[in-house]
Amino acid sequence: MRDPLGSMPARARQPDISPPVCASFALKRLEHSDLTLSAAMFDGWQLEYSQMARGTYRTSSQAACLSDLQIYSETSNIRTSQHGSAPSGCIAIGIPLAMSEMGLFNGRPWAGGIVAFRGGEAIEAVVPAMQLLVITVDEQELVRHLWWTQRIRIDRWLDRTALTETDPARCRSLAARLRVIADASFANGDLLERSECRSGLLNSVLEELVPLVLPNLEVAPPALGQFSRMQLVRRSRDYIYDHVDQPLQVVDLCRALGVSRRALQYSFEQVLGVNPLTYLRNLRLNGARKELMAKAHSGIAVRDVLARWGFWHASRFSIEYRKLFGELPSETLHRARRQA
Fold first, then answer.
1. At the top level of CATH, which class does the domain 25-213 belong to?
2. Between the chain's N and C termini, which has fewer beta carbons within 10 Å?
């Protein structure tokens, strides 16, 4: 099986602890009645639309396009036939948010399940009037993420056929979480002009895709003794404080320390009674609060601070900040300015 990290010998390889690089960003919105424009909204795709029911075709589309991630939302009112392929080198996921009737995907009934397929492979779909969320992510980013966080290789995933996830509870849960991420990406275009926020968005999507990739795989709990757990927590804490001015994510700890997300989870919960995501988020919130208070006199804006600390979702940042500190970040800033 191909090594997802390349051909470099294991002893010579140093862990890449830098976040994924998303060099560009574009946000598009469009309402129209032209099938050709619908296909053109999907950057890099080879798609053809054909209307399959009577009526005036209408659709509204939004797209957030990063170099390694694309998020599309499309709401249409008429049954169409769509064929073509996603860009080579990506994994594409179709998430129905609402369907008026059953459709078809690659000759199989499609009744609301989530579909995933490899870019470059031909697809043939009959799509009813529906609201559809489509996400494409660079395949190697997903391969690396699953390796760093789960220590699982997925090099050959989707090589032979598309995946259709039909478990209703899993589909509803994943669709709801991805919808929140999509809506936030469409609403926070100014934040996503910053590279650290784009990396945070990519990591958030990759995290949500893990249960789709491994829906039925049982992974044994990591065999860590009490001393090993304490060591891992201490090493994690040291790394966090050494990089406290960077917008760290949990995946950065996995990469730097060479451990799975599950190992971190077990260790933090056993030693500190909190999961690593909450611990890291609270440290970042504290860092943002200190910066707001220290730089209040300089005219700094809340959005500048939250972006620098790796929060790409403005409203969620405010909610988490208020839960932890009992006030909104804007209130912290105003109070610090009065005191200054």
1. mainly beta
2. N
CA 69 to chain centre: 8
CB 151 within 8 A of CB 4: no
Q: What order of strands is seen across the sheet that includes strand 69-76?
A: 25-32, 59-66, 69-76, 130-138, 90-99, 114-118, 163-165
pLDDT (tens, 9 = 90+) of the chain, 340 residues, equals 333 333 323 333 333 434 444 447 889 999 988 888 888 888 899 988 888 888 889 999 999 999 899 999 999 998 998 989 999 999 999 999 999 999 888 888 899 899 999 999 888 898 999 999 999 999 999 999 988 888 888 877 777 678 888 888 989 999 999 999 999 999 988 888 888 888 889 999 999 998 888 764 444 455 555 558 878 888 888 888 888 767 788 888 988 888 888 888 888 888 777 888 888 888 888 888 888 888 888 888 898 888 888 788 888 899 999 988 989 999 998 888 888 6
Do 157 and 108 meet the contact criterion of CB atoms below 8 Å apart?
no
Residues in the chain: 340
Place of tokens 């009737």: 101
- The one-character DSSP state at 283 is H
Residue pair 144/252 in contact by the 8 Å Cβ criterion = no
In the 3-class helix/strand/coil scheme, how is 225-241 assigned residue by residue?
Answer: CHHHHHHHHHHHHHHHH
Which alpha helices (H) appear in 106-161, and where do they start and end?
139-150
Q: What is the pTM of this model?
A: 0.72
The segment(s) of the chain belonging to CATH 2.60.120.10 are 25-213
The pair of three-digit structure tokens given for residue 75, joined into one six-digit string: 């709401």
Question: What is the rounded CA–CA span in Å between residue 216 and residue 319?
Answer: 33
The Cα–Cα gap between 84 and 170 comes to: 28
Query: Which numeric CATH code is attached to 226-339?
Result: 1.10.10.60
Specify the domain boundaries for CATH 1.10.10.60 within the chain: 226-339
Residues 6+ apart with CB under 8 A from 72: 41, 42, 61, 62, 63, 132, 133, 134, 135
